[in-house]
Fold phosphatidyl-N-methylethanolamine N-methyltransferase.
Amino acid sequence: MAAVVVGAGVLVPFPFYYALWNYPHKWVALCGKGVDPSHRMAQISHALKALQILSLLSLARISAPPPAYSVLLFLLGQYLNFKVYQLLGEAGTYYGVRFGKNIPWVSEFPFGYIKDPQYVGSILSLLALLCWVPFWCVFLWILGYLFMMWVESDEDPATRAKPLS
C-alpha cells in the first residue's frame, strides 16, 4: 500500500501539467482577470514538487555520504535548471507562451545545445538520488518527465490561450 501512495505522490504533478499544456485557455479562464496564470501554475507546481519530494523521502535510506558521481550529477542537473529559470523567468518556465504571453526565443546555453534542458537537468538530479532512493521511484518520476517531453514536443500555436484583457 505504501508503494501505491508513494507512486501516486511521484506522479501527481503530471496530469496537472498535461491539462495545462493541452487546455491553456481553460486555465487562463479559471485563473481569471488579474491573476497571472504562469504565477498560479508555479505556486501549484511548487506544492506538487514538495509532495513528490516527501514521497521520495518516505522511502529514502540515507546512510552514507553520496558517491562523487551522484554529487556531480545533482550539481549539473541543478545548474541546468537554474540556467533555464534564469533565462526564461517564471513565465517562460511555467507555460507562459501557452497562456498567451510573448516569451522571447532564447538560444543561449543550455538552449541550442541541449534539447529540453530543464527536463534533462531534472532527470540528472533524480539519477543522482539512486544511491538513496529505490530505482522504481526514480524510474517512475523520469517516465513522467519523458511523457511531458513528448507532450510538449508538438505544440500547436492555434491552441494557445488568448490573453485576458
